[in-house]
Amino acid sequence: TPLSHIRNFSIVAHIDHGKSTLADRLIQETNTVAERDMKAQMLDNMDIERERGITIKAQTVRINYTALNGEEYILNLIDTPGHVDFAYEVSRSMRAVEGSLLVVDSTQGVEAQTLANVYHAIDADHEIVPVLNKIDLPATDCDRVAEQIEDVIGIDASDAIRVSAKTGEGIIETLEAVVHKLPAPTGTLDAPLKAMLVDSWYDSYLGVIVLVRIMDGQLKKGERIKMLSNGSTHHVDRIGVFRPEMTEIDALGPGELGFLTASIKQVRDTSVGDTITHEKKGCTEALPGFKPSQPVVFCGLFPVDAAQFEDLRDSIEKLALNDASFSYEMETSAALGFGFRCGFLGLLHLEVIRDRIEREYDIDLITTAPSVIYDIHMRDGTVEQLHNPADMPDLTFVDHIEEPRIKATILVPDDYLGDVLKLCQDRRGIQEDLTYAGSRAMVVYDLPLNEVVFDFYDRLKSVTKGYASFDYQMIGYREDSLVKMSILVNDEPVDALSTMVHRDRAEMRGRAMVEKLKDLIPRHMFKIPIQAAIGGKVIARETLSAMRKDVTAKCYGGDASRKRKLLDKQKAGKKKMRQFGKVDIPQEAFISALKMD
Ligand code: GTP
């Protein structure tokens, strides 16, 4: 196919505005998939994605479309991940295509992720076609939303396409716009091979599958390729395209998107954004802007049942093979025993991995509170990176501590603005901007990442009844007055409950935590003091009074089977507990104690 008849594009949208539904429609309209094979949300592969309704791994599909002018086109659609945790993957996959459909729900309007994603598209020099979706709904207001797109994003929306991905209205117009409004790719067939590694994932039959976009040159089956980032070389044993099922072809040329397999064993051996060329006579200059993605949120994962430690190791190793942005190292905790300290791109990433371990590998986990990486500037001039508050060095050697900050953009209806400002203020935010787009306010805050990773998003949703949208980017490290707060249960420090807090808030947080723990820890046969401390100084204290915990006392000795049932029930309850010293701490305490109301 000549370059002039190829179009490569992505769909950018806020969550739930209909990206997957529209993609399904485009596939269906062009008969890319036989009707009977069509399942809802063709592009979302994994069960968890489907359940949570989010798209995590970029997927791609090649569509053959005969336009109204009678010409045959190849349309390559890349599905980009929509969540902030995967911002780097979004920005890379955008660079593999020339245009974007900007889908906005015409009953809702522009949201925070609409903005974040469209900025990635603008950064990648995309031609952008606005699509107003859900016009079948009574609340649709295309004129207002088009105006909002022009005001807030600053792109022309006067001929935005009006679509219902549900009924199919406007789908042909959308396909025609892809052909006539988006540019064709460029590239030279005779030049040395230059291809972008857009994405990669593990397949149990084929090993690692690499999604590539050919910039220049041609890639054929059987050739030897080289990754420019690390010089590793591989023999290409398969080349193909997604329709959307994998279909082998012999070669990929400039402007094309497709996959290769090359007996690569781990996804770790491939880096998104890397340049792929031929081993011999290859290109020497890499594609610009390559950087490996770095985990920013850390937490401990421990098996509830210590006997499952090896199973946990096994599951983590397997998941890591397929996810280069997930890091782990072994950790031992006095309270929780053997486990792993794991690093993630963000909270959603953490939840997805934790769910997969629990579900796919059937391991009950204790997850410790998420934490960020602090830079500890020592008096001797060195800098230590603190991944776990429990490892905080002796304060006498510490000069100052820096923490990561983010720029958060929140869009919210007027009515809830006050609550949002209060929430951001409570989380040590510094307001940077406040503007209006219609009846919605857009606030920009500089916030400590640590205050956001835990339950900020949940709180934001709850104070705005779900009407706010949120997006963030990292802006760097800044010094603040931070201290490590320890929690002592029955006079012994519980390392897994240590947290870094701001000095001015330590007392408030400490009091809240010990009060929560008092409710979370069941009464024992003895009195249990629960304390929060900074260094040696106790800043908050509660006492859990003693209780004789004899569950069978009420059974008058008579009914033996009932007695046994009660004991069994008590034993099952125990399983979810961790014994610490003489005290049983329930699993949920490790997370619940840190939630702020
Ligand atoms: P993520 O994949 O989670 O980012 O969401 P998405 O943007 O892909 O949204 P999705 O396609 O899952 O659609 C969200 C919801 O809107 C679903 O319940 C769809 O059925 C519904 N929906 C999508 N398009 C339309 C439309 O044109 N009309 C109506 N009435 N509902 C629609």
TrEMBL record:
Gene3D superfamilies: 3.30.70.240, Elongation factor 4, C-terminal domain (3.30.70.2570), Elongation Factor G (Translational Gtpase), domain 3 (3.30.70.870), P-loop containing nucleotide triphosphate hydrolases (3.40.50.300), Translation factors (2.40.30.10). GO terms for molecular function: GTP binding; GTPase activity; guanosine tetraphosphate binding; ribosome binding; translation elongation factor activity. Coiled coil: none annotated. It is a peripheral membrane protein. It catalyses: GTP + H2O = GDP + phosphate + H(+). Residues 4-186 form the Tr-type G domain. GO terms for cellular component: plasma membrane. The keyword RNA-binding does not apply. Keywords: Cell membrane, Elongation factor, GTP-binding, Hydrolase, Membrane, Nucleotide-binding, Protein biosynthesis. It is an enzyme of class 3 (hydrolase). SUPFAM superfamilies: EF-G C-terminal domain-like (SSF54980), P-loop containing nucleoside triphosphate hydrolases (SSF52540). Pfam families: EFG_C (PF00679), GTP_EFTU (PF00009), GTP_EFTU_D2 (PF03144), LepA_C (PF06421). InterPro entries: EF-4 (IPR006297), EFG_III/V (IPR035647), EFG_V-like (IPR000640), EFTu-like_2 (IPR004161), G_TR_CS (IPR031157), LepA_C_sf (IPR038363), LepA_CTD (IPR013842), LepA_IV (IPR035654). Its EC number is 3.6.5.n1. Its main location: membrane. Required for accurate and efficient protein synthesis under certain stress conditions. May act as a fidelity factor of the translation reaction, by catalyzing a one-codon backward translocation of tRNAs on improperly translocated ribosomes. Back-translocation proceeds from a post-translocation (POST) complex to a pre-translocation (PRE) complex, thus giving elongation factor G a second chance to translocate the tRNAs correctly. Binds to ribosomes in a GTP-dependent manner. PANTHER family: TRANSLATION FACTOR GUF1 HOMOLOG, CHLOROPLASTIC (PTHR43512:SF4), TRANSLATION FACTOR GUF1-RELATED (PTHR43512). NCBIfam families: lepA, small_GTP. Belongs to the GTP-binding elongation factor family. LepA subfamily. This is Elongation factor 4. The gene is lepA.
